[in-house]
Amino acid sequence: LNTEISNVSSQVLHNKIKEYASYAEVYGYGECSENDGSPCEEWLKMGKVPIDDIVELPPYHPNCECIVIYYIE
After folding, report:
1. Which of 36, 58, 65, 71 could form a disulfide with 23 if both were Cys (CB 3.0 to 4.6 A apart)?
2. 18: which DSSP letter?
3. Are the CB atoms for 58 and 16 separated by under 8 Å?
């Protein structure tokens, strides 16, 4: 249930902010990191990318602790 709530929250926030933000970056903490073989590892390694390049939003797996950081320039 927590994963589904996070999924809906990510989608709503992304849809509201994407017209203002230029770039986005996926940031992970807790059990989500770049070098642990987690399903979100690929997204974490991308770094800061144009907002249109973020095609899949967290959560990437159950109990995923990734978030998207938006850059408004």
Report:
1. 71
2. T
3. no
